[in-house]
Design a protein that fits this description.
This protein has one domain: Ubiquitin-like (UB roll) (Roll). Helix content is 12%, strand content 32%. It has a five-stranded mixed β-sheet, with no helix packed on it. The longest helix has 8 residues. The chain starts with a strand and ends in a 5-residue tail after the last strand.
């Protein structure tokens, strides 16, 4: 199935969770300071392992940074 992550198209297997997306598809990104929204709905970090992705989902990943 195809999903879009930060405006880039990815092909992921059926049954892919947010956690699987992070570790297997996007290369083990550190979740520290990371926020994820699926179709403009924020997903709590505690739910990443259970939140299934669907064909056509639009995922936005935002990383917190320091600055001023």
């Amino acid at each position: 199935m195809e999903i879009t992550v930060n405006q880039q198209l990815y092909t992921v297997p059926e049954g892919c969770t947010v956690q699987t997306l992070l570790t297997d598809v996007l290369g083990n990104q550190s979740p520290k300071g990371l926020a994820i929204a699926i179709n403009q709905t924020i997903v709590a970090k505690a739910n990443w392992g259970q939140e299934l992705l669907n064909n056509g989902d639009h995922i936005m990943m935002i990383t917190a940074t320091q600055g001023g």
